[in-house]
Amino acid sequence: MAVILGIDPGSVKTGFGIIEAGAGRPRYVTSGVIRLPPGPLPERLRVLVAGITELVELHAPSELAIEQVFMARSAGSALKLGQARGAAIVPCVTAGMQVSEYSARQIKQAVVGTGAADKVQVQHMVKTLLKLPGTPQEDAADALAAALCHVHTQAGLIALAGASAVRRRRVR
Prior knowledge:
The chain is of the alpha/beta class.
């Protein structure tokens, strides 16, 4: 059974979600938000690295699904987001995890069925797909959605590989 860590990176708060995936429906493990302190970016990044490191040590995920950088309100915001993504990725690759990156549109498409979904729709579908008793916080829901997107994408790739292997055998 694969343990997947989903991350919705941010320079003020970073959402995380952990699910187990194997045969059948993915199972919820935990989720939440790492709130970064006000102040200089290097200190916020230190807190982020410590938080992700603690999650990795506690839950031992084998795979990371993380949202790609998109052009935010300004180039400065995009640079800070990129630095937060890097800080979140480093503890994961240090632990030997496989890293997969998905655009916000891919994540929404995989979970909601449309790449133009809003935050409320993502929260609702994450709650439904994981059979959660309550609605997760926005950033946690986005992180869980990234993990679910990874599960769906991997399942699709495996099915595609299996289908092409069957086709090749028949041709020979």
